[in-house]
């Protein structure tokens, strides 16, 4: 490689490392429109873009979906993705994915699965589209992982939770066929 080619490569690499460093330093705040609660409807909290999000009271009480998401995540997802969304040697940390992956892409991957096989990657996420224990609680899992990604809830079972609303109970019963 010529000296000029090496210099261009070194400048490009330095620029990439600087950009990555800046991204690592940028923290998503609870005021971010992709996180912040815009409105509540029937015990569910949403961003201004109508995407489910978590809510934690000043007293540390989590919304019902976040609590339910903890339970559902640990019944279906933690075997591969590790406890509390932390990741494992087998599968990535979902708590970070929930902050960067678009909600609709999250739903698509959970529903239809994903397979990546190439020279650098060999990973398979199974499809859960026919698993009612996942699909009926997909928003719950998503908001729990968002809360974990923001470190708004610590590892382990949330200590305090809101009561389950009648609307959430009715939706759960309808989805589960009760």
UniProtKB/TrEMBL annotation:
Residues 159-172 have a biased composition (Basic and acidic residues). Keywords: Heme, Iron, Metal-binding, Signal. Residues 155-178 are annotated as: Disordered. The keyword Secreted does not apply. SUPFAM superfamilies: Cytochrome c. InterPro entries: C-typ_cyt_methanol_metab-rel (IPR022411), Cyt_c-like_dom (IPR009056), Cyt_c-like_dom_sf (IPR036909). Residues 68-144 form the Cytochrome c domain. Residues 1-24 form the signal peptide. Pfam families: Cytochrome_CBB3. It comes from Donghicola tyrosinivorans. This is Methanol metabolism-related c-type cytochrome. GO terms for molecular function: electron transfer activity; heme binding; metal ion binding.
């Amino acid at each position: 490689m010529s000296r000029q080619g090496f210099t261009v490569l070194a400048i490009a690499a330095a620029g990439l490392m600087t950009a990555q460093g800046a991204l690592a330093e940028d923290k998503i705040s609870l005021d971010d429109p992709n996180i912040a609660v815009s409105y509540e409807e029937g015990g569910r909290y949403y961003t201004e873009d109508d995407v489910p999000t978590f809510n934690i009271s000043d007293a540390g009480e989590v919304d019902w979906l976040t609590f339910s998401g903890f339970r559902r995540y640990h019944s279906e997802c933690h075997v591969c993705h590790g406890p509390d969304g932390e990741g494992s040697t087998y599968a990535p940390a979902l708590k970070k994915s929930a902050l960067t992956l678009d909600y609709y892409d999250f739903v698509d991957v959970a529903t239809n699965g994903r397979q990546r096989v190439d020279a650098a990657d060999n990973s398979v996420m199974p499809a859960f589209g026919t698993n009612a224990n996942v699909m009926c609680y997909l928003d719950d899992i998503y908001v729990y992982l968002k809360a974990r990604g923001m470190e708004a809830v610590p590892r382990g079972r949330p200590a305090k939770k809101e009561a389950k609303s009648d609307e959430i109970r009715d939706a759960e019963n309808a989805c589960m066929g009760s």
